[in-house]
Amino acid sequence: MFTENDYIYIQSKAQQAGLSVNEFCHQAAMGCEVGQRISPEMVSAIRDLSGIANNVNQIAHQMHIYGLEAVKQQCFSIISEVSRIITQVKNNNHDSED
Fold first, then answer.
1. Which of 84, 95, 77, 86 is nearest to 39 (CA)?
2. pTM, whole model, 2 decimals?
3. Backbone angles phi, psi at 7, to 5 degrees
4. 24 C-beta neighbours (distance < 10 Å), count
5. How far apart are CA 52 and CA 49, in angstroms?
6. Mind giving me the DSSP string for the chain?
7. How many Å separate Cα 4 from the centre of its chain?
8. Is the pLDDT of residue 95 over 70?
9. Which is it for the CA torsion 19, 23, 24, 28, positive or negative?
10. With 70 as the cut, is the pLDDT of residue 63 above it?
11. What gap in Å lies between CA 60 and CA 74, rounded to an integer?
12. Which residues contact 92 (CB under 8 A, 6 or more apart)?
């Protein structure tokens, strides 16, 4: 039997996972790991990182052709952008834990 506080807790967890309470309980009872849904901010960060990965591949190709010195500034720019995204993701994770 659930107490009211139990139900509120389960309802909150189900909402974070993007599921109904019924579906959340069903998945939990079946031994499935029920995780939190990816936030729009996280989706955006993942998309940004995918674009950066493409840029890194292009820079690696240019580096093989022209040498490291020719692409050094692009490398620093990408490192800075990746750092910014990691900070953004960390801040969003800390905000969602509160």
1. 95
2. 0.49
3. -65, -45
4. 20
5. 5
6. ---HHHHHHHHHHHHHHT--HHHHHHHHHTT----PPPPHHHHHHHHHHHHHHHHHHHHHHHHHHH-HHHHHHHHHHHHHHHHHHHHHHHHHHHHHH-
7. 32
8. no
9. negative
10. yes
11. 11
12. 39, 41, 42, 45
Number of residues that make up the chain: 98
Percent pLDDT > 70 in the chain is 91
What gap in Å lies between CA 82 and CA 20, rounded to an integer?
36
How high is the pLDDT of residue 73? Answer: 85
Per the CB < 8 A criterion, the answer to whether 45 and 93 are in contact is: no
pLDDT band at 97 (very low <50, low <70, confident <90, very high): low
